Amino acid sequence: MRETLRISTSSAIVLVVFSLVFTGLMAITYQATKPLLEASAQAEKLKLINEVLPPASYDNDLLADAVSLPPMRALGLDNGSKLYRARKAGQPVALVLEAAAPDGYSGRIGLVLAVTADGHLSAVRVTAHKETPGLGDYIDPKKDKNKANPWIAQFNGQSHELAEEGRWKVAKDGGPFAYHTGATISARAVTNATGHALAWAAERRNALFALPTGAKFEEKQP
Prior knowledge:
Layout: H1 2-52, E1 66-69, E2 81-88, E3 91-104, E4 107-116, E5 121-128, H2 160-164, H3 184-210
Antiparallel strand pairs: 1-2, 2-3, 3-4, 4-5
């Protein structure tokens, strides 16, 4: 009985010591790799931003010049997000923000777009979707077969006035934007969400640029 108890106690002590050592090593490894992981995440974020906003158009630390947005129905976002502000020589250049189309053919379509200080869409990119491969996934330029002139590039340079006048629609709905036959739902979802986000950002651009870095944007109630 005593021998059994001694063996059990020894085994328990060994297990506790092993767990403590393993946990300590994991903590040390995490602390050592954390800066690298954060740097990698920042680099990927900046790479995506530079797809919608030319790097030469701004000279500030764009990722540091950010404000927080609460959940925004107008942007299709159920959770808070970050909005980044590009400047050159201290002057406003563009706002970079997330948006989403909740009504894609296969569900939510994530977007990132840049809106210039004069209210034009610099560009928009799809960040996440589940649209049908080979049919509706042309909304992502990486999967669009037309590499020279991808479908999503038709929004580049368009003015917020088009959205505010209710004309930011695919051609099937009476607007100027093309779509692929048989995959109208995907195109319509991205088009509508992009127009709503452009109009939202253009209307609030002065207030958004004026906020202190790190501040939280609060929508004014009418």
